[in-house]
Amino acid sequence: MDGYLNDAGLRQRLEELRAQHRALDDQVRAAHECGMTDQLKLMRLKRRKLQLKDEITFLEDQLNPDIIA
């Protein structure tokens, strides 16, 4: 990540990642619907989706940290 981002920067990055995740989700869904046989490509799409999800979760945690009282 690019150093320290303020909340606005984190939120913008979060929206970008969510858009990328939705686009990959659409690609995976389309691949399943058309009977894609390139399993390697499908695995790569799914792996990238998981990476994006992990980064999304990390950013969400940065924006909404758990406060232990």
Task: Provide structural commentary.
The structure is a single chain. By secondary structure, this protein is mainly α. The protein has one domain. About 75% of the residues lie in helices and about 0% in strands. The protein has helices spanning about 5-35, 40-65. It is elongated. It starts with 6 loop residues before the first helix and ends in a 6-residue tail after the last helix.
Break the fold down into its secondary structure elements and pairings.
Layout: H1 7-33, H2 39-63
Low-confidence stretches: none
Helix content estimate = over 70%
Mean pLDDT: 88
Query: Could you tell me the number of beta strands?
Result: 0
Q: The biggest beta sheet, please?
A: none
Q: What does the radius of gyration come to? A: 15 Å
Structural class: mainly alpha
The separation of the N and C termini measures 29 Å
Q: What is the overall number of helices?
A: 2
The fraction of residues in strands falls at: under 5%
Gross geometry: elongated
InterPro entries: DUF465, DUF465_sf
Pfam families: DUF465
Protein name: DUF465 domain-containing protein
Coiled coil: 7-62
